[in-house]
Amino acid sequence: MAKQKKAQWPWHLLTGLILVVGALLIWYSTSLISYEWRWNRVPQYFAYHAEDAQRAADYSRVESVSRQGDDALVTLLGESGEQQQLTVAGDSLQFNEGDDVAEGDVIGVNRHWAAGPLLWGLWTTLWISVAAGVFGLLIGLVTGLCRLSANPTLRHLSTVYVELVRGTPLLVQIFIFYFFIGTVLDLSREFAGVAALALFTGAYVGEIVRAGVQSIVRGQDEAARSLGLSAAQSMRHVILPQAFKRVLPPLAGQFISLVKDTSLVSVIAITELTKSGREAITTSFSTFEIWFCVAALYLVINLPLSQIANCLERRLAQSD
């Protein structure tokens, strides 16, 4: 007799109930401190209408003003006889036809959509994460293989590097890299931040790679060597592909942690997502709203990474 499948809807209902209770608790907590929610202030920190002032280049006179929809085309005639044409928003026009204009006077403004500080912070977090992740992966691969090397010098130096990085806080490493190494070598803060994150990630990736390679039974290497492959070829074509399947989950976790660790580079004045959030709070006074948005943006980065890693893991499992 086939085993009956248990109904799952009660558990889904319980999950939804827990989430609703959690949201209500957050709302109740803010009500205790008389917090006023101001979500209407948040959108401008993602995108806003920027205004670029259009100024007269010389002492001149407004020769003509022609309307073009919501814009106005202003023609200025300078004292030297040269014409200057400016397109400004019609409702921002400061002068009429025939008026005299001094050098540097604002004729009007141009309006256009511009990315707000939270979007710029998100972009900075993304490129720092990608750059540090790529270099960290390369450093970690080399470090992991050096940890398994028969050469004592390579093995000892890689061990010192791993233990030194894993035994000290990332924040301290960023300070040392920027204020000491960066000052001596005249490095930019962006380069110093990426380098510190890459070295930090590389140490953990190195241990992940070492553990993954050691998890492959020795017989795999012996079989590859018996077929005429060199040690390097055996590692490249036989051991590493199998090890990659096993280290994929911890690697994904490490790169997700790297995205969150980028928040620490704000201490060396890199305006990434967390620092952008702090700056937005100082002008909007919408503390909870901004921090919830910052948390959501980190989720926007990390959830796809987690899903991609799960898909790769399932696909690689099917190939076994």
UniProtKB/TrEMBL annotation:
Q: Where are the transmembrane segments?
A: 12-30, 126-146, 167-185, 191-209
Location relative to the cell: Cell inner membrane; Cell membrane
| Domain of life the protein comes from | Bacteria
Entry keyword set: Amino-acid transport, Cell membrane, Membrane, Transmembrane, Transmembrane helix, Transport
Recorded hits in Pfam families, A to Z, give: BPD_transp_1
Main localization, broad class: membrane
Tell me the protein's name: Amino acid ABC transporter permease
